[in-house]
């Protein structure tokens, strides 16, 4: 991993907790090999368009709460072009995703709302309210406590 030299707080380290030297070598799917964050950065910059397109698609998918669909490719391409014009600023990426058509016009399908209480009548005469209340405060409500006796 190219960023392995950084600990969980972002501090630089040459050795891990057991005293072994950090192995910061790795390879990208394209086959480019690197050793450490400087070489990782250069490997990513060598394929900048691919990296920006992938990053934009991933962030957009996260923002939409779903995987990207065929129709989203135009929006991703527009975002990449806007990022290029604005020197690849993260603020631009977020702003443009929020203003994009897929984000503002989500079409997640038909939303079905289940009623809170079903049409069946609920007989609560067999429930002991104090037991139920005490159990619920302790997160110990058992299904048989809430099921009316027949």
Shape summary: extended
Helix-strand category: mainly alpha
Low-confidence spans = none
Number of strands: 2
Q: How many angstroms does the end-to-end distance come to? A: 62 Å
Which features characterize this protein?
single chain, 150 residues, mainly alpha, 2 domains, 45% helix
Write the layout of secondary structure elements.
Layout: E1 25-27, E2 33-35, H1 37-46, H2 48-64, H3 73-85, H4 90-99, H5 101-104, H6 129-137, H7 143-146
Antiparallel strand pairs: 1-2
Care to describe what's here?
The protein has 150 residues and is mainly alpha-helical. It folds into 2 domains: 1-46, no CATH class; 48-111. Helix content is 45%, strand content 4%. It contains 7 helices and 2 strands. It has helices at 37-46, 48-64, 73-85, 90-99, 101-104, 129-137, 143-146; strands at 25-27, 33-35. The chain has a two-stranded antiparallel sheet. The radius of gyration is 27 Å and the shape is extended. The mean pLDDT is 79.
Would you kindly provide a brief summary of this structure?
With 150 residues, this protein is mainly alpha-helical. 45% of the residues lie in helices and 4% in strands. A two-stranded antiparallel ribbon has the order 1-2.
């Amino acid at each position: 991993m190219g960023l392995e030299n950084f600990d969980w707080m972002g501090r630089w380290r040459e050795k891990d907790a057991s005293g072994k030297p950090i192995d910061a070598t790795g390879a990208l799917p394209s086959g480019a090999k690197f050793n450490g964050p400087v070489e990782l950065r250069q490997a990513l910059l060598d394929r900048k368009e691919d990296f920006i397109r992938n990053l934009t698609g991933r962030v957009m998918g996260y923002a939409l709460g779903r995987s990207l669909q065929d129709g989203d490719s135009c929006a991703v391409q527009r975002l990449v072009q806007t990022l290029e014009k604005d020197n690849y600023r993260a603020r631009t990426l977020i702003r443009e995703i929020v203003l994009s058509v897929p984000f503002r016009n989500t079409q997640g399908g038909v939303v079905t709302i289940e009623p809170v209480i079903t049409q069946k009548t609920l007989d609560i005469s067999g429930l002991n309210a104090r037991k139920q209340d005490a159990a619920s405060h302790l997160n110990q409500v058992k299904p048989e406590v809430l099921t009316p006796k027949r």
